[in-house]
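Reviewers asked in the last cycle whether our approach scales beyond single polypeptides. To address this, we selected a multi-component target totalling 226 residues and predicted its structure end to end. The input consisted of the following lines:
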Amino acid sequence: DSGVTQTPKHLITATGQRVTLRCSPRSGDLSVYWYQQSLDQGLQFLIQYYNGEERAKGNILERFSAQQFPDLHSELNLSSLELGDSALYFCASSAWMNTGELFFGEGSRLTVL
Amino acid sequence: AQSVTQPDIHITVSEGASLELRCNYSYGATPYLFWYVQSPGQGLQLLLKYFSGDTLVQGIKGFEAEFKRSQSSFNLRKPSVHWSDAAEYFCAVVPNTGNQFYFGTGTSLTVIP
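The resulting structure, written as structure tokens, was:
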């Protein structure tokens, strides 16, 4: 158990819909990262927050947004969903802003029909 | 272009045989280096990491990795593979100029009896 909790574990929705994925980092970790894993794209970095502030942005679509709340949990919002958004979305946390190691949650599997 | 390369998409080994998974990177100065393992339906778990110092790093589950600066490589090894080692293995790099993790595309390991 990494200590990182993600909900929901599975989500099935339709195109055009909006979903929210939730992540609770390990106790004490200030950094939260979001990754998308799909068969054809591998593990893609989406965005990182550190202590409530956006720290780094990767290949995140404009239809996607995220935030980190004062209690350090984070949410990833995916809107106007397309079939290609079907993927496994991972949250990871780290104690530090830079480097250190990432602790991954078990992921949220999103299926868009 | 900066990249992390895992040239072997899929490797099959017999149980008890030795294993080497390759990882090459193309970042400037020596980055921070990691190997993660992902079992089916699970998140990524850290096997080992290299920040500095001894270039031979020991990790969990009997794995080790060797950093070779001249070859920009960080190959993962295990002297005797167990059936439970079947999983997806990811090499990751954090350039020392930044804070983002860059993951390779992964190597899928199959272990045959």
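DSSP finds no helices and eleven strands in chain A. We regard this as preliminary and will revisit it once experimental data from Aim 1 are available.
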